[in-house]
Write a structure and sequence with these properties.
The chain has a single domain, classed as Glucose-6-phosphate isomerase like protein, domain 1 (Rossmann fold, 3-Layer(aba) Sandwich), CATH 3.40.50. Helix content is 56%, strand content 12%. It is built from eight helices and five strands; from the N terminus they run ααβαβααβαβαβα. It has a five-stranded parallel sheet with strand order 2-1-3-4-5, sandwiched between helices. Helix 1 packs across helix 8 and helix 2 crosses helix 8. The radius of gyration is 17 Å and the shape is globular. The termini are far apart.
């Protein structure tokens, strides 16, 4: 059996190293995504977030923080997770294919200038790739949150934010930091110290 303290120490070290790399390499990319989100919302558009498994949970977390509140009591923001309606997802998976569950939703609601954020630790989830391709064709701005390799989805998205790790747990920890940073910066930009 492995030494549990050593396992925890190694996880903490890996997390610190990953966060140092985010600080050194990804801050401009995070700020650029906030720019697109702010412009989209100010122009009457919406932000849509999607992913599978833990990434679906991250998409829902982001939408909840921005529709609800992050740090400020303020108006709701038009940020939607495409992972929440089980009737839509199961119908599309059954009637078409699981690779189409986000694409079909985007076909019905995306307009030019919207922002679509796909989250995939590997960057190889077929339904994320299909969604980003569809959104791009509909002239939405497409972003991918992924790991260091980016996978096939990085070739499709307009922009990628690649957490500098090949370890799924570290990538997911990086994603939640990025999501919280996006929420914090976007809320501060749009609302400042205003409430309600």
């Amino acid at each position: 059996m492995p030494d549990e303290k050593e396992v925890l120490a190694n996880n903490i070290l890996g997390h610190r190293q990953m966060m140092d790399e985010i600080e050194n390499r990804l801050c401009p990319d995070i700020i650029a995504l906030v720019d697109y989100m702010e412009r989209c919302i100010e122009n009457g558009g919406k932000v849509m977030v999607l992913g599978n498994g833990g990434s679906a949970a991250d998409a829902q977390h982001m939408a909840a923080e921005l529709m609800g509140r992050f740090k400020l009591d303020r108006a709701s923001l038009p940020v939607y997770a495409l992972t929440t309606n089980t009737s839509i997802i199961t119908a599309l998976a059954n009637d078409y294919d699981y690779s189409q569950v986000f694409k079909r939703q985007l076909e019905g609601i995306t307009v030019e200038g919207d922002v679509v954020i796909g989250i995939s630790t590997s960057g190889n989830a077929d339904n994320v790739i299909e969604a980003l391709s569809c959104a791009k064709a509909m002239k939405a701005v497409t972003y991918l949150l992924t790991g260091e390799n980016g996978g096939k989805a990085a070739e499709v998205a307009d922009f990628s934010i690649k957490v500098p790790s090949g370890d799924t747990a570290r990538i997911q920890e990086g994603h939640i930091f990025i999501i919280h940073s996006l929420c914090h910066l976007l809320e501060a930009r749009i609302f400042g110290n205003k409430t309600g």
